[in-house]
Amino acid sequence: MFSSPAYAQTIGSAPGATGFAAYSGFIPIVLMVVIFYFLLIRPQQARAKQHKAMIEGAKKGDVVITGGGLVGRVIKVDGDEVEVELAPSVRVRAIKSTLTEVRGTTKPAND
Hints:
Number of helices: 2
Number of domains: 1
Low-confidence stretches: none
Strand content: 25-35%
Number of strands: 5
Strand order of the largest sheet: 4-3-2-1-5
Mean pLDDT: 84
Structural class: alpha+beta
CATH class: Mainly Beta
Distance between the termini: 108 Å
Largest sheet: 5 strands, antiparallel
CATH topology: SH3 type barrels
Shape: rod-shaped
């Protein structure tokens, strides 16, 4: 019926399936995860930590930029809110977490 006899292979005798070679396919994946951590995740965490410290350090007199792009001077800090003066007699309250930048105090130029 069949022209050649069939031979079964035993488990473990397959070429390349012993020891280190069985796990060598995972090495590139592990390397990619490590590279992503050091090039993307870790710097982003450092920037987020720095941004949080900058926002928490906002004080009266600082010039701030809100998430909507409005630039104003901090008049009052109350917990997690700040009161920002955008123009003379134009004040708004903003949540500290919506501030994108704190530029610090600006002193008037000497004429």
